[in-house]
Amino acid sequence: MNYNKIVIVGNVTADPESRTTPSGQQVCSLRVATNRVWTDQQGQKQQKAEFHNVVLWRRLAEIASQYLKKGGLVLIEGRLQTRSWDDQQGNKRWRTEIVAESMQLGPKGAGQPAQSPPKADNEAGKREEEIPV
Predict the structure, then answer these.
(1) Which of 18, 24, 99, 123 could cross-link 65 (Cys pair, CB 3.0–4.6 Å)?
(2) Residue 15 carries which DSSP code?
(3) CA distance 21 to 17
(4) Euclidean distance between CA atoms 4 and 68, whole angstroms
(5) Using CA atoms, how far apart are residues 105 and 10, in angstroms rounded to an integer?
(6) pLDDT-derived band at 106, boundaries 50, 70, 90
(7) What is the chain's mean pLDDT, rounded?
(8) Which tens digit of pLDDT belongs to each residue from 53-72?
(9) How far is CA 33 from the centre of its chain?
């Protein structure tokens, strides 16, 4: 039995691009960056980023285009697929991408700079809203 499964957790590098095929199916493309950190033989910390092309179809495409933004954290499970085509000059082109089968969104604001919560202005004589019990 053959097995083609990939799982990545990373940050979206740009807002997803959504479109509809001529047959009416929704498709969404995005790029996800993952990083690897290791210590080399000299004891120096090294880091390398990998960039993955991800394609989502139907309902997953709708969810991704609605909720994913640049910098957001996402977990993608899917399969690797390589497709080929001839460009305008007649050259053979190849692209390997992840076709998503499931997706989990990271916590809201993951990958975004932390923001401090708004401060209550009690000194200006404003009363906090009373909540009935």
Answers:
(1) 18
(2) -
(3) 13
(4) 25
(5) 10
(6) confident
(7) 84
(8) 999 999 999 999 999 999 99
(9) 8
